[in-house]
Records
---
Amino acid sequence: MSLSMLDNRPIGIFDSGMGGISVLGEAIRQMPNEKFIYYGDSANAPYGEKTTAQIIDLSDRVCEKLIAYDVKAIVIACNTATSAAAEYLREKFAQIPILGMEPALKPAVQEHPHGTIVVMATEVTLREKKFAALMQRTAAQAKVIKLPCPSLVRMVERSVVTSPEAELEITNCFQGIDTDSVNAVVLGCTHFVFLRKAIRTLFGGSLQIYDGNAGTINNLKMTLEQKGMLTHSENEGGVTLLNSKNDAYNLQMQQLLDLYEQVVI
Ligand code: DGL
């Protein structure tokens, strides 16, 4: 790659709050030379209980803030904001690539074509047409159980991801579901990725758990590579954490980021 093809601007990543920190963790792992600016909109979390119009408006404001930092791409590290606002954002900020997320139903169905698959996501993600289209494209023969878990979003917003409180909340969310008959769980909300290990511990080793983080970051990498927008491979990467709520949240985001490898991988 010629030097003129390199792009040293930062990459913007945002979520309604803490969940997207799990996507940031994966991004740092896969792209250690890049600079990232993460914006958590914790003052307005959860997005998953808002109207589509509200989510578009909030996502628009966050993207304006990231654009002011001269980001070269934006990752919507939120399934909810992707479902509600990705189209709008891609049209409005057409000058840079905008990558979104969707529940990793496709790989779950590929590996369990006739299985029972639980998709944990927000009400918004599960009701939007994007998810209906995904179901139609991928889930022909599988039994898909949609499981909205708003209490888990609020819990992860408080950085509770490993305690007995977390285990109790997860157990409550699965009440009414015969977990022995479940073959796979799809974490269709980036907040829930922080609960990956806790869910596995609760439901035993045979349960397969899927999330969209690695796929999204692969996509980001490929897109920037194709456009000649990756940074120099010898550059030192870095992270700037921003939050709409208050400075205490910045510390909380850093602590979650430090926990990433321990609770997710
Ligand atoms: N983390 C978000 C997602 O991936 C949503 C959480 C929320 O704000 O409700 O859907």
---
Amino acid sequence: MTRVITYGTFDLLHYGHIKLLQRAKALGDYLIVALSTDEFNMRQKNKRSYFSYEERKLILEAIRYVDLIIPEESWEQKKTDIIKYEVDVFVIGDDWEGKFDFLKTVGKGCEVIYLPRTPEISTTQIKNELKSYNP
Ligand code: C2G
């Protein structure tokens, strides 16, 4: 069984996130999502999510591509996650291109794949457009 992992905040879930999860699952048989906690978002990623960790977790659990959700609490946990969950493939959007190549040597050797982001959608864009939305 090929085990895949990806990381992110997945706030205000949109079709760009879904296309990422869909392609990530297609790379294996079992998809783990390491979901950024509220604390990690605020302290390390300098971003506040609209939905809390528990709310974002509930939403992701409803997605058929997702098999397991674990908390992402630090930048450093990826290596231990890959070993602990016997991950074969690490996947993330290409906005992170090259940033996680060091994971290739972790455990028995982890494949690292950067998938093209869906260009025309982002949580920031949604928030900005809603601010100026006057029906
Ligand atoms: N994504 C995408 N297309 C978009 C928006 C997001 O493919 N239009 C992808 C991102 O590249 C990422 C995933 O969806 O792989 C989740 O996006 P974010 O929640 O923005 O993830 P990020 O904040 O980049 O967190 O340790 C890694 C970080 O936790 C990644």
---
Amino acid sequence: MPATIIDGAALAAEVKRDAKRRVQELTAAGRPVHLTAILVGSTAAGELYASRQAEACRAAGISYDLLPLPAETSFAEVAGTIRCLNNEPSVTGIMLHLPLPPHLDATEVQYLIDPVKDVEGVNPANIGYVVYGHTLIAPCTAQATIELIRSTGVTIRGAEAVVVGASEIVGKPVALLLAEQMATVTLCHIATRDLKLHTQRADILVVAVGKAGLITADHVKEGAVIIDIGINRVTLPDGTKKTVGDVDFEAVRQKVAYITPVPGGVGPMTVAMLLKNTLRSAELGLKR
Ligand code: NAP
């Protein structure tokens, strides 16, 4: 029997509904939730992402503003802006659009964001809290991945979980969160000698690489849960373009128990997690 498709859009709608209700409660109590996003150097992709984000925030009752800075802004100027936002009580959450211009180091800049206001969970302190098992705010895509796995009802504790792709923002945090949930975690990366050897024994397989067709039916175990984070634009034989993940969806779905589609899986849940984190930042701020 083909896999059950994990409906990320439907799950995301639920998360957004809950977030909206709580945002309304906070607003009614005189504690509005406000997210400021910083965009250094304007790109078409950055602006499009920012406008989608603004729309999602407004729909959840979160006020949002975008702070565009010129591409040549120095580290000291960006740092000054972030310090101001950290100290501004009406700003309950801060996020930084990536990529930054080449003269700015993303980690150094993220390090400056107050961990409580860090809605993307990218400050090293927040990653550290995940390591210590006291998660404050986790990176959105990693958190989305855990929620999607949980939605299947499959037990994470004790499961063989394999993560393919080891970036700081996606693969590594996913591996950490799975380890926090007591899965036995293998993190595969570019230097992994025999990828199949690992993926074939995964009860839970998470793929975050950015290579269409990387994971075929041969790579997966029957009955596994597959979370496909990859996003790739491919050109079909008839010349049309299509967005696909890293997993050969049609072939793999015949073999596994649960699979996320691309689009409609991790993507919408990641946006929902950003809203959830924005709310969490505001709530954490109240405890100070
Ligand atoms: P990234 O920074 O490029 O990281 C990709 C990782 O995969 C790197 O660790 C890379 O290693 C590794 N890798 C490359 N080829 C590999 C292979 N053949 N086998 C195993 N590992 C390999 O990308 P990212 O930011 O983590 O994103 C990964 C994918 O997820 C992209 O397609 C991105 O668009 C997508 N994404 C989706 C969402 C969403 O909301 N759905 C959110 C974030 C990202 P090296 O660096 O050593 O080459």
